Records
---
Amino acid sequence: MSERASAYPPSFEYVEGWGMVEGHHSRVLRPASVEEVQDDLEGARKARVSLALRGAGCSYGDPSITRDGHVLDLTRLNRILAFDDESGVVEVESGVTLEQIWKHILPRGWWPKVCSGTMFPTTGGALGMNIHGKNNFRVGTWGDNTLELDIVLPSGELETCSREQNSELFHAAIGGFGMLGAICRAKLQTTRIHSGEIDVVGISTHNLGEMMERMDAQCSSADYLVGWIDCFASGDCLGRGLVHAAHYLAPGVDPEPEQTLTVAHQELPGSIMGFPKAQLWRALYLFNHDPGMRMVNAAKYMAGRLEGMAEPYRQSHAGFNFLLDYVPNWKWAYGRHGRRGLIQYQSFLPADVAERVYAELLTLCQRRSFNPYLGVLKRHKPDPFWLTHALDGWSLALDFKVTPKNRAALFGHCEEMTTIVLAAGGKFYFAKDQVLGLGDPQRFLSTERLEAFKALKRSLDPGNLFQSEMSRRLFGNSFLS
Ligand SMILES: Cc1cc2nc3c(=O)[nH]c(=O)nc-3n(C[C@H](O)[C@H](O)[C@H](O)COP(=O)(O)OP(=O)(O)OC[C@H]3O[C@@H](n4cnc5c(N)ncnc54)[C@H](O)[C@@H]3O)c2cc1C
């Protein structure tokens, strides 16, 4: 047995998607260096076993799990290699999380350009899916703010790529959902901030049309924009909710930047309304059914009406960006065992059709009695990555509860929504998907880009080493054909 194997043997574990509705027992390999990644690739090639790359496992569905192969978990590549506080460029190994990055750079007056709704994704996973934040309309995606990356190809070779060097690989691997190689290092641009707080304004809106109008009006000035939707409201109130627009503070506005730029100032409170936050999911569990969620959404809307009448307020960057992390393990409110959990159905639509189509989707959900328990609206802009989900338009993310009983009918409902979205020229996002079927990506990705991606996969990975449940679900076992 090699020294490494005895110190950190591969283990056999149950590995599931974040939404908990699918998981499989797999052998999990956890390399801690580029050399160990190369060893694991060589071992898998020799044993003719495929590998599913995995970061923190925060993708809702099945892109980082496999029933037929091993999981290559890259979270032990977790060192921050360098940070230049003149330029704001941070260099990290790919297992470094968003949380590690912001905690490292914030005290020096910098913040990640792009934050997902949770701080737990790794750099490799963020690049694999090319994640976006509430500021996508302004700064683009994680890939847009990446300067360079190293990737271990299926052959074991290490390639560096950027917009100038191996540009094709750079644009294909970012958003390439772990199909082309294991990203091991990246250089990222971060953004200068002059305070640990951000100015936030809440805008209560009566329906979807008003929400989109108010968000559009804020697009040229706000640094972040996000709309929360009460998906239970119907009729004239369909799509009612609350918009949050946030702005960075200009230099000199914060009287105490030394204090607000500390990690301690960002920490989320230990309790919420008296509940220790670690136990809060249990309280949410009690409301996790249609009548309960109707009440919670209505109460949130009423609170939003009050917020809309109040003055703008200041919030920490972590509090604003990682709201969902306020309630640890909140997903357990959806049930923890027996294929119970949640899916998020996030569709992207061109600006000119979005309002009509989202109204149709929300109405359809109500007609079919599949009410999303959470709805989130964002504004997006296109990016140059080959398999990108982004476009000049909007996305609406809808969270649905999954139980063994409703699963088949819910997935059928999603199929019905997918037909509507695709007919309207819409797109989907692999980080959130669990419901699309074989051949669906061909219906929304650029044919030219997809063909180029497949050609690159064939040339770099002729043995189809990198596979996942998602790759087989959407592209079949014959991804290479
Ligand atoms: C509560 C919550 C909120 C979220 N909010 C947002 C949001 O606002 N915006 C958004 O865009 N996303 C959001 N996400 C999704 C999340 O950001 C993405 O799924 C992200 O990819 C997760 O990163 P990960 O490290 O967990 O990767 P995983 O989920 O483990 O893997 C993601 C993909 O990347 C591949 N991969 C992983 N590591 C590597 C590597 N080193 N090299 C190459 N490929 C690799 C995997 O094979 C897989 O295809 C949210 C997720 C959750 C749970």
Note: Residues 18, 52-59, 63-64, 74, 94, 116-118, 121-122, 124-126, 128-129, 131-133, 177-178, 182-183, 324, 431, 468 surround flavin-adenine dinucleotide (CB under 6 Å).
---
Amino acid sequence: MAKSKPLHWQEPETINCPQCNGSGEWRGMFGSGPCAMCDGTGLVGEDGEALPPHEIQPILRRQRDRLAQELEGARQHYRQLLHTPGVREALAAANERQQERQREDDMAFRKRLRGG
Ligand SMILES: [Zn+2]
């Protein structure tokens, strides 16, 4: 089976898009949208020019995979935490305190509405 593509693809060097500072978002005075300079990817080539789609796509795919891995790692860490003695109880207590605060806020708000 003949391969038409080289086995080792060199990832092009990229820098954060100077236009949107790597966010991929363009913010104007009257709105926002994807940055036109980097096509909303937040990345441009070393020379400051947007990369063609076939070069930017693998980079974005790898970034996405890396993020997914990090997220999965965080999830596992969280699951482990939940199995640590005392953590569930602490979470429940914090939750309870938060609800309590919310109820107090609601009550204070209603009181203000009544003019009390
Ligand atoms: Zn940009």
Note: Residues 34-83 form one domain.
